[in-house]
Write a structure and sequence with these properties.
Length: about 220
Amino acid sequence: MIKRVILDIDGTITDMALQISPNTIKMLRIAEEKGIVIDLCSGNVLPVMVGIRNIIGLKGNLAGENGGIILANNNIRTDFSKEVPLKVLSHLKAKFNVTEPMTNRWRETSVAFYYSGNPNLIKDYVKEFNVVIQNSKFAYHILNHNQDKGHAVEAFLNILKIRKDEVLVCGDSENDISMYMDGVHKAALSNSVDILKDKSEFVAKREFGEGVVEVLDHFGLL
């Protein structure tokens, strides 16, 4: 039986304009009223995620910066440092036309950047630094080795003492792939990248938040 749902935020709950439909908020609240706890796992920073969780009215835990920082049971833990990602960003600024999002000032374990060129050029360039470049569709993220959303899911499982088959995950982009591990329930949206759809038990016909509502309904959580 599914007890917890782990959702990405940007492009999953929100649309590409970073807006959440009123019906999505309503249905997420209904799911929690019925006993399902919704955790959020995002590439975004923890302060932004706390605001989003509180505005929606959720009770679950948070994993920000693609699993780098975790807020669970009112305790914050950071499992990585942003020392190496910052160094890599400095090199990228010197070689490529990259810019930073404002949220970098609040990042504790990673950095993000915007780049309109060929991402493979950057991925090849950073190989010597032992970091990972992930695309969330909204920005590129420079992450430490082993820093990903799968790490966050494993942390939630250990902290909360729950089994994989009690968890449903849902996301939309490349940086969500590691959440789709063996043993957990998996769903995708019509706007999700193909690899997530291929790994999923159910793919919603709708996109963004309305697709999430469709997922919750399919698994009997509403």
